[in-house]
Give the backbone structure.
Amino acid sequence: QDGAFYISSTLDMRNIILEGTVVADTPDDAYARRQLFLKIFSPKLNGMLQYRERQIACVVEEAGFTVSTRQRIPNFFVSLLCPSPFFETLDEVREELASWIPLLEFELEIPESGMEFGMRQPSQIITVENIGDVSCGCEIVFQALGTVTNPELLNIDTGEYIRLLTTMNAGDELRVYTHFAGKRVVSINGSSVTNAFSLLDTGSTFFQLAAGVNTLRYDASVNMELLEVSIYFRPQFLGV
């Protein structure tokens, strides 16, 4: 047989090297800046590198100094390891799948026939665009305005879904995180956060948002109209 059969590929951690020069007016100033540099780039700390409206999580593999024998100016280098090789947007994208649309405007004049102060989004189905280069995880937030049973979110494109087997009361909030190495389900009650992984239906999948347009549909076994659903995500990119 000629050639080979390609199955898939994975990306390793990203290694980023930073180089520069320490500019100081006096030896004491140079020493102080060197100490500050070592404090900032400690291998014991996690960090976030930002560049051109993108960011990437990283840890310091090595940081140090070299001195040119000709110029006698200290140069520095930093080697950063990024467990995830993808850059992501600085701000999260928020999409409302099920919510109330406000209709109140000022200046306000209420006619005798009355007026609507808000309306429910008319469709259960919404398209969410991931402008990134690759699939990414997301945070799904279910909020109950009244009694809601078994809230769920379906990815129509893949058939994958997330369903929580529970009855929510007014004010209850459940959050599902589908990120790589960060998959979890929690219940929010004020400032209290409780593990709610046991509520997850066994057929559920922590699905990712594919690059491009994703078609999603929310639902519930009882009182779907009292359910609000939001989704948060950061598109990821192969480079900047």
User: Anything to note?
Assistant: The longest helix spans residues 27-40. The chain has a mean pLDDT of 89. Residues 91-237 form a domain with the Jelly Rolls fold (CATH 2.60.120.860).
